[in-house]
Design a protein that fits this description.
Layout lengths: L14 H21 L2 H37 L4 H23 L5
Length: about 110
């Protein structure tokens, strides 16, 4: 944000507006320093979203495949498939909750 040009060129006639713009600029710089760069935050959010999606898809699809494999071996169609699906959903949500509960690295 510090690379942005001001919305207007400073005018020496109204010192209050110039002082306000300087205080706003300083506040933005302090906030950026406190929270980190927006690019890093967006990148971390993108990665965590991809992680949640991968956990969800992997859990559900993995549960379906393992349930179908159990049904194929034991001949209990559709109960193994439904049990594997339920187990996959539980594992997927557990992984998502665990990754959301972690403190971000700074």
């Amino acid at each position: 944000m510090s690379d942005e040009r001001p919305a207007r060129e400073p005018i020496g006639e109204d010192a209050r507006i110039d002082a306000l713009e300087e205080r706003l600029k300083a506040a933005r710089e302090r906030e950026d320093e406190r929270t980190g760069s927006k690019v890093q935050g967006a990148d971390a959010n993108y990665r965590s979203g991809n992680r949640a999606l991968a956990d969800l898809l992997g859990g559900v699809l993995g549960g379906l495949v393992l349930g179908w494999l159990f049904d194929w071996l034991a001949g209990t169609l559709p109960w193994g498939l439904l049990g594997g699906l339920a187990l996959g959903i539980v594992v997927a949500f557990r992984n998502i909750i665990r990754s959301a509960s972690k403190r971000p690295d700074r």
